Amino acid sequence: MKKYNMIINILFWTLITFISFVAVMSVTTPEQVAGALMVRQQKQHTETQTVKEPMVVSVQKDVEWFYFEATGYSANDPAQGTDDTTYTGLEAEEGMVAVDPEVIPLGTEIVIKDIGTFVAEDIGGKIKGNRIDIFFDSKQDAQAFGREGVWVKIKDQDVHIAQSLP
Q1: Which of 34, 54, 59, 152 gives 20 to 30 Å between its CA and that of 9?
Q2: 142: how many CB neighbours lie within 10 A of its CB?
């Protein structure tokens, strides 16, 4: 029994010594005390802190897609009032679109999602706001395309689509 009392007494005083050691260390060197043993309060620093210069990072502008209503058109179609020459004076061919020049400037290269790349070379009497006409070589192809909503992106980053009313 005396043997167990002595072991308990040694463990008790070892624990007291350890707790005292941790308390002294937390007062004298709080940044070196293990956080799991004691929770210390953050001291508010009243001294002046140096401000680091922010790092400048070049960020590429996000690609902006705009929703347009597109219709197909072809040359020499009396129903549409078209001929072989575009508004810019070029011969009409696939890869051209008719646009509202107040929204997309003439000569601008655009991408129509899932269709391809086109150049704005023509205008039309009914092309106002977010509407475009896609040129097709044949009237049948233009009619097969019909009218549908498309997503348009400007290829030239210096050109911006103007805000238009629906």
Answers
A1: 34
A2: 21
